[in-house]
Amino acid sequence: MARISLLLLLGLLCGCTSPYLYEWGDYDQWLYENYKHPKDDEELYVDLTALITEYESRKKPNTKPMAPGLYAEYGFLLMRRGENAQAIKYYTKEKALWPEATVFMDSMIQTAQIADKASQKGGSK
Q1: What letter would DSSP give residue 120?
Q2: Is there a contact between 69 and 56 (Cβ–Cβ < 8 Å)?
Q3: Per residue in 48-73, pLDDT tens?
Q4: How confident is the model at residue 47 (pLDDT cuts 50, 70, 90)?
Q5: Is residue 1 in some structural domain?
Q6: pLDDT at residue 107 tops 90
Q7: C-beta of residue 67 within 8 angstroms of C-beta of residue 22
Q8: How many CB atoms lie under 10 A from the CB of residue 74?
Q9: Is residue 33 over pLDDT 60?
């Protein structure tokens, strides 16, 4: 009887848990599919832009935080597109949301700033 009660209690507790701690949207599935079947940058850009726009448009005070790495992934994609100033914005968002990523995000911000200055020099010739 005690075992049955314990199993029922355990079942109730497990049944009440939230499936995700963070707001992943379709990011985890998207990331898996992208590694399995790589897409071109434009398709990735469209997918991530839609995911982030949807999250930020419905964000409420008690919603789950954006998944770790999503803003950084988007910033990296922006940097590859040459949009360094925008990349810095998303690296800063990642850093604010996930302080444990500060060292990495600071180095990515610095890299984007250097690339931005180089592109401005190249464009002003």
Answers
A1: H
A2: no
A3: 898 889 888 876 766 777 888 999 99
A4: confident
A5: no
A6: yes
A7: yes
A8: 25
A9: yes
How many structural domains is the chain composed of?
1
Query: Is 64 part of a structural domain of the chain?
Result: yes
Q: Which two tokens stand for residue 88?
A: 């810095």
Q: Does some domain include residue 101? A: yes
pTM comes to: 0.73
- pLDDT score of 57: 85
Assess if residue 9 is contained within a domain.
no
Domain CATH for 98: 1.25.40
For 25-62, give one letter per residue: b (16+ CB within 10 A) or e: bebeebeeeeeeeeeeeeebbebbeebbeebeeeeeee
Structure tokens at 41: 């940058």
Helix (H, G, I), strand (E, B) or coil at 26: coil
- Cβ atoms within 10 Å of 66's Cβ, excluding its own: 23
Which helix (H) or strand (E) segment is 93 a member of? helix 84-97
Give the residue numbers spanning the domain of 85.
20-123
Average pLDDT over residues 23-27: 68
